[in-house]
Write a structure and sequence with these properties.
Number of strands: 3
Radius of gyration: 21 Å
Distance between the termini: 37 Å
CATH architecture of the domain at 15-88: Orthogonal Bundle
Strand content: 5-15%
Amino acid sequence: MTDPTPDARTAATDPLDQVFAALADPTRRAILFMLLEDDMAVTDVAHPFQMSLAAISKHLMILTRAGLITQEKRGRVKWCKLDPDALRAASVWMQGFGQFEPVNLDAFERFLAAELEGTDPYPGPADENLPDPDHNQPQS
């Protein structure tokens, strides 16, 4: 039987995985929001952020590799443009979750946050009536 989870190489090359990885960062989401208005020069994109031009360029490269933006040189200036096609693919995938009630989405959000942090999404007292799988139970 094959393992249903993709290996690191597959995940890194799956376009949808790249889109969601790019969207995971608040700086990159802010950049996309800025590009909704119009194309922008890289220096103009960098202006509102308190980080180096090199750091912004890394964010822009991730967005470009994910297909969320395109970059082109016009004269001596590099311009960025939003490419909404990659967002459409992510939106279509997310619409599959539209059938859930808000309470289920909250639970899903807690689960995802816990996965990223490596913590238990549903902390609470352990049920003392359940056997501990790490210890042998006495035989009756």
